[in-house]
Design goal:
Number of helices: 20
Helix content: over 70%
Structural class: mainly alpha
Distance between the termini: 14 Å
Strand content: under 5%
Shape: globular
Largest sheet: none
Order of helices and strands: HHHHHHHHHHHHHHHHHHHH
């Protein structure tokens, strides 16, 4: 039975109800932006703080050590998905979202105030590792709870559009980190000041923003779906309860694999690829990546709205088909060009199909599970899949590059997207066969 058949999708939404939903989505999204800003600030400023924690004269080794800790956060994300998913399904989405951003605040603040290796020796990188573990837990929990909240608080007719703002703010967090980096680099500080103490500033900013987001999230109203479910069914937010939905779990893994590999390729890895493989200058690289991320941000609500009209499945199939066929030509042409403008246009061309996944993946996963297990069902399989296929994408690409066969990564990425395409073709359209109205 569809939601429309039971009256959930009533077109006549009064102005007060719309205002309540939009306010909740805005507050939830702002918290998501803050979480991802804190996460990406680490990557953006690693060049400046790595020498303070890893006292090796070789800058490549310093960056490698910083990158290892970046990868370690992905290992913590499944645990965070379980922890905060459990809290969301048992005690409410609002509590989980608030605690998640508080954890990110602690992680960012720890990085900001930790003494350097010169002051406390090996304790410095150990404390940095602890901070990244906390941030990894937070981020792992943020996705499932945020996807669940945004999907439940939106009305059925516009759920794709509203939930697309999860990736608007996710990419927005990365853009904000880049903006802070550019302001400190070009306006306020010298390179020497950045390396000496200026790298602490973005983490202080992140901690303050996280406190602000936590205060805002405390005022969120709980979703109607959770309130209704808590009155009628007992939550089963546990691993055993989750195993009662094997088909849905496998669907989350399958529909995520290709999309997350593509997302991390055209966000995190693009900065490295454009600089090392294309050969653009540091300033050109920053502008190209920044511009392409702005373009990607604009696409998210458009694709979300389209999915509300034609369904989720056609949008996912578009991503799968275009990604399978166009990834290799785009990356091959991108490597051959020396023009910043052409590089920008090619990355934007990739985003035209990648947005088919990023814009609606959260709502599709939420629509697969009943209320009592939704946050856990979205969070755990997603976090595991991202750790396997998303977080490793830059490392796989660099590994093939060291072998002298960088083009192998193009085929690797195209192949993973094709495997997800098979899933898209076989799955039901969750817009028309949604579990959002089911509590058990």
């Amino acid at each position: 039975m569809t939601e429309q058949a039971i009256g959930v999708g009533d077109d006549r939404l009064d102005a007060r109800d719309v205002e309540r939903r939009v306010k909740a989505i805005f507050i939830g999204s702002v918290g998501n932006l803050v979480e991802w800003y804190d996460f990406y600030a680490y990557t953006a400023f690693a060049l400046y703080f790595a020498p303070a924690f890893f006292p090796n004269s070789d800058p490549v080794v310093q960056q490698l050590n910083a990158a290892v800790l970046f990868a370690a956060t992905f290992l913590m994300r499944p645990l965070g998905g379980w922890l905060f998913g459990y809290l969301a399904d048992h005690f409410g989405r609002r509590l989980s979202l608030t605690l998640s951003v508080v954890c990110m605040c602690f992680g960012s603040l720890i990085i900001a105030v930790t003494p350097t290796y010169a002051s406390i020796g090996l304790a410095a990188p150990a404390i940095l590792a602890l901070a990244r573990v906390i941030e990894g837990l937070s981020l792992g929990g943020e996705y499932g709870a945020s996807a669940t909240y945004l999907s439940e608080v939106a009305d059925a007719k516009h759920r794709g559009f509203y939930s697309s703002f999860q990736y608007v703010t996710l990419i927005g967090g990365q853009l904000t980190a880049i903006i802070v980096l550019l302001l400190l680099q070009k306006v306020f500080l010298t390179p020497e000041q950045l390396k000496a103490w200026g790298w602490r500033i973005p983490f202080v900013i992140g901690a303050l923003l996280a406190i602000f987001a936590a205060v805002m999230r405390r005022g969120l109203h709980e979703t109607d779906a959770f309130v209704q479910a808590s009155k009628t069914v007992k939550p089963t937010g546990s691993i055993l309860g989750l195993l009662q939905y094997p088909r849905e779990l496998l669907l989350v893994v399958g529909l995520t694999a290709g999309g997350t590999a593509a997302f991390y390729t055209f966000t995190t890895y693009m900065q490295t690829f454009v600089k090392l493989s294309v050969g653009l200058t540091a300033d050109q690289t920053t502008l190209v990546v920044f511009g392409s991320l702005v373009f990607a941000t604009l696409l998210q609500p458009i694709y979300g709205a389209v999915s509300d009209r034609i369904g989720r499945k056609p949008v996912l199939i578009f991503f799968g088909l275009a990604g399978t066929l166009a990834t290799i030509p785009i990356l091959t042409t991108l490597k051959a060009t020396k023009s910043p403008l052409m590089a920008f246009l090619l990355i934007c061309a990739a985003w035209i199909f990648v947005a088919g996944y990023t814009s609606i993946n959260a709502v599709v996963k939420a629509e697969l599970f009943p209320t009592k297990i939704r946050a856990l069902g979205v969070g755990i399989p997603y976090s595991i899949t991202v750790s396997i296929f998303g977080g490793t994408a830059p490392a796989v690409a660099l590994y093939f590059k060291t072998l002298g066969h960088e083009e192998w990564f193009y085929y690797y990425l195209s192949g993973i997207i094709f495997l997800s395409l098979i899933i898209y073709g076989a799955m039901r359209d969750t817009k028309h066969e949604s579990a959002m109205h089911r509590h058990e």
